[in-house]
Amino acid sequence: MEKLALLLVIIGALNWGFIGLLQFDLxxxxxxxxGTLMSRIVYTLVGxxxxxxxxxxxxxxxxx
Length: 64
Hints:
By secondary structure, the protein is mainly α. The chain has one domain (2-63). Helices cover 84% and strands 0% of the residues. The protein contains 3 helices and no strands. Helix 1 (2-22) crosses helix 3. The longest helix has 27 residues, at 37-63. The model has no long low-confidence stretch (mean pLDDT 92). Pfam families: DUF378. The chain crosses the membrane at residues 41-58. Keywords: Membrane, Transmembrane, Transmembrane helix. InterPro entries: DUF378.
């Protein structure tokens, strides 16, 4: 589960990098537009993965 969350966070980060630097939304391009069902599913999964990844900060803080 952690590797899947990390993969989705990386995909989201790369997509935001493309948007910021090149004004190019890779997810929207791959799935037919930002408003398509598939794009919205990917955006949602990336967002959920980001929320899940918050636990990495909490678990790291508990170890130190």
